[in-house]
Amino acid sequence: MAKGGRKGKYEYWISPDGLLLIKGWARDGLSKEQIAKNIGVRVETIIDWEKRFPQFSKALKKGREVVVCELENALIKRARGFDVEETTEELRFNRATGQNEMVVTKRTTKHVAPDTGAIAFALKNYAPEKWRDRKDVEISGQLDTNPFAGLTEEQLRKLAKSNG
């Protein structure tokens, strides 16, 4: 209990009902700032509760795991391409009922082509050692960068005059 015998604000939020709300908000993609606003506390309080109450931290993480999984699945679907069924409906009079009704007049299956951006992003994340943009290259051996290193000043002046 908090000072003076009253319960702290956190007590509801670490109860099963409070944790269910936290998990749902995290699953819906709310940021810590938005969750803090919903609760009526500062974001620093949320961060403190994460450290103090493992069940609170776990609820935030579990909710986000669902979103990450959904996003990964959507990325993979978009990278592979997919089929979508489109329907066209028209308003028609039904003599039997005497009512206007929406009737499906056309069904079409369309293919959504794979998205090269989604493919590249997925490959860079799923196989970074093979697909990352930056390549690490190691060069061994010696490099003679100054062909005039062993010459005297006088020899350098003669060379400069003869090429000038």
Question: Summary?
Answer:
The protein is an alpha+beta fold and 164 residues long.
Sheet/helix structural class = alpha+beta
What does the radius of gyration come to?
A: 33 Å
Strand order of the largest sheet: 1-2
Distance between the termini: 90 Å
How many helices in DSSP terms?
8
Q: Could you describe the 3D structure shown?
A:
With 164 residues, this protein is α+β, with helices and mostly antiparallel strands. Among the domains are: 1-66, no CATH class; 85-131, no CATH class. 53% of the residues lie in helices and 16% in strands. The chain contains eight helices and two strands. The protein starts with 9 loop residues before the first helix and ends with a helix. The model is unreliable at 1-6 (pLDDT under 50).
Q: Which key terms come to mind for this protein?
A:
single chain, 164 residues, two-stranded antiparallel sheet, disordered N terminus
SSE layout and pairings?
Elements: H1 10-13, H2 16-27, H3 32-39, H4 43-52, H5 54-80, E1 82-94, E2 99-112, H6 116-126, H7 128-131, H8 153-163
Antiparallel strand pairs: 1-2
